[in-house]
Amino acid sequence: MANSARLLPTRRLQLAKSTVSSRIFDAVNIIIMVLLIFVMVYPFWNQLVVSLNDGIDTQRGGLYFVPRMFTLNNYDYIIKSEGLSTAVMWSLLRVAVGTVTHLICSGFVAYLTTVKFFSFHRPLRAMFVISMYMSGGMIPVYLWFTKIGLLESFAVYWVPGLIGAYDMMLIASYIESLPDAVSESARIDGAREVTIFFQVVAPLCVPVFAALAVMTAVGHWNSWFDCMLYNSSGKFDTLQMLLRDILIESGKIRKLMQDATVGADAVKSQVARISTQSMRAATTMIVTIPIVCVYPFFQKYFVKGISIGAVKG
């Protein structure tokens, strides 16, 4: 009893020390997480502030958390640009068609590589793995697109990306984690492989499909280089390409206004208050906000799809 009584103060002291150390650990973690959140969120917030500030005033610098001279001229200039509605239509159509066709084709090829009795399932997977590390280059691809008639067409946005090697491997890994009895029972009932994929396997792959849909859609939404390279006529310009042209055009207008000596007063209205920096911030917000609004709805699928699809049970 005497020994246990002597140990009680020691245990209490250890518990007190552990409690203090755990609180310090929690406080340090909270501080670090808050700093990380600030580092990630502040650049976007600062761009939003710059986009809502007067362009001439923005050149003075010193904008951090709130606009100094609030204005919507930057967005108004972009919205009134010619061809905006058409560019938005092509961008949305590209995202929809490109994402759906990519998931269907990549998913079906991934399913074929998991069918054990398919003779070429291993060579097929090896062929796509090799394509991840070897490419023909830009010039051969351009010449090939010219030969098959993909240039100056909407198909050039989604046909080359029907099958992605990395996405195919990720889907295949996810399918392999599913029980074999799922597909075997369907085969016993007389279902063909296409039916098994679309009616049995695909519904079970919703998490990985949703995760890849986010990445594919964002890739299509942000892409502009292929539009410039393969659709030089501007007939199928997407929103990204239009915003790029607007940004370049605004810079040229500012330069012309600075160099002009006659008739400058007639032009100094709304455009006179726009700067390249403010236009760049406005275009960044227009491109980013749709993704920020859509991503939370797919976040749970994104995390689950990547983690489960990359690890075999």
What integer value in Å does the Rg equal?
28 Å
Beta-strand level of the residues, as a percent range?
under 5%
Helix residue percentage: over 70%
Shape: flat
Count of individual beta strands: 0
Q: What is the ordering of alpha helices and beta strands?
A: HHHHHHHHHHHHHH
User: Major sheet, described briefly?
Assistant: none
Low-confidence stretches: 260-264, 309-313
User: Can you give the mean pLDDT?
Assistant: 81
Distance between the termini: 52 Å
Going by helix content, strand content and strand pairing, the class is mainly alpha
Alpha plus pi helix count:
14
What topology emerges from the helices and strands here?
Elements: H1 2-51, H2 55-58, H3 73-79, H4 84-114, H5 121-133, H6 138-148, H7 165-176, H8 180-188, H9 193-204, H10 206-222, H11 225-230, H12 239-259, H13 264-267, H14 276-309
Descriptive overview:
With 313 residues, this protein is an all-alpha fold. The protein has helices at residues 2-51, 55-58, 73-79, 84-114, 121-133, 138-148, 165-176, 180-188, 193-204, 206-222, 225-230, 239-259, 264-267, 276-309. It is flat and about 70 Å long. Mean pLDDT is 81; it is low at 260-264 and 309-313.
Primary descriptors:
0% strand; 74% helix; 14 helices; mainly alpha; single chain; disordered C terminus; 313 residues
